[in-house]
Amino acid sequence: xxxxxxxxxxxxxxxxxxxxxxxxxxxxxxxxxxxxxxxxxxxxxxxxxxxxxxxxxxxxxxxxxxxxxxxxxxxxxxxxxxxxxxxxxxxxxxxxxxxxxxxxxxxxxxxxxxxxxxxxxxxxxxxxxxxxxxxxxxxxxxxxxxxxxxxxxxxxxxxxxxxxxxxxxxxxxxxxxxxxxxxxxxxxxxxxxxxxxxxxxxxxxxxxxxxxxxxxxxxxxxxxxxxxxxxxxxxxxxxxxxxxxxxxxxxxxxxxxxxxxxxxxxxxxxxxxxxxxxxxxxxxxxxxxxxxxxxxxxxxxxxxxxxxxxxxxxxxxxxxxxxxxxxxxxxxxxxxxxxxxxxxxxxxxxxxxxxxxxxxxxxxxxxxxxxxxxxxxxxxxxxxxxxxxxx
Length: 391
Ligand SMILES: Nc1ncnc2c1ncn2[C@@H]1O[C@H](COP(=O)(O)OP(=O)(O)OP(=O)(O)O)[C@@H](O)[C@H]1O
Ligand SMILES: [Mg+2]
Hints:
Layout: H1 23-37, E1 44-49, H2 55-68, E2 72-77, H3 84-99, H4 105-122, H5 149-166, E3 171-176, H6 183-198, E4 203-209, H7 212-217, H8 221-227, E5 228-233, H9 238-251, E6 255-256, H10 258-268, H11 272-285, E7 291-292, H12 294-317, H13 322-333, E8 338-340, H14 341-347, H15 356-364, E9 368-369, E10 375-378, H16 383-390
Parallel strand pairs: 1-4, 1-5, 2-3, 3-4, 6-7
Antiparallel strand pairs: 8-10, 9-10
The chain binds adenosine-5'-triphosphate and magnesium ion (MG).
């Protein structure tokens, strides 16, 4: 059906053709925004799931919902080098500027910018940004400069939340790839959010991260669970997977045969990224003009797998060291998506301790996580099957 535009185009964070099966998370967020807008309490939401399940597109959706309410929204993506103080200062600065447009800045935003200035000095965060202020805010001694990151962040978030409340609006900080924040930085972030939530200020964080995040929280986890709604984001169930495939085609007046949908579900286990890749290849292979058949899918399967092997899986695998690859291969040789660390070590002819640095670096890089003590798992769905093909 090359004459039509192919409605499936998978990619990291690319807008889905249909955001299927996430109604609960969306309405949960919607309710939170509504509550906060009315001066009531609302909890920040944290999306936790494997690679390619649709965390980023959901964060973008949250952004859109909050923006529709007239809220100021900022998106931030962490990486291995992210410094929380720097990230928070950047988010706060942009939010303050957005909340105090143009000539209003000196009037409305000045005191908030003063607290930000204190924070920047205390945490040695380079100031400034693309927008010049036109005046130099004075730091506010005793605010956001205690040297305790949790308290100082709380001061900073509080002035931003206050400013938003004064303007009759709210602020959303969407923070993606949050598992890259060092464990020691997560607690201060939680502390700060705790403070703004106690004051029922209209400022929330929506976070997204790999399941390793839960391990990083460690003892802070039960505390975090009181502050945040943790939403596990998983593969789509049958109905949602069918919708993700069928509804974009429907818009082009193309129908999927049920047996064709079943075939894709079977090959993908309902993982969103895979659904999109299979949808795209099935579409390419189908002669059409208005149907996608089971046979089309069967023709498309090897192509879709090849695309995934060369793209989605390879970008992760190609960045690893030799030692890490040996570890991954040992995991794959044990068969499943997760296995015992001690058995991996044994398969490598080493002790658990001898390979613990490699195990840790795979977790840090976001390729693996530890769902339980002595268990190690891939963060990339179906990675074990890829490794078996590749190695
Ligand atoms: N609910 C959904 N319905 C249909 N397609 C979806 C859905 N969620 C995600 N997708 C598609 O799946 C792909 C992966 O989504 P996304 O990048 O948001 O995943 P992610 O969880 O952020 O992955 P990563 O951990 O690698 O960043 C995208 O192409 C997106 O459009
Ligand atoms: Mg993402």
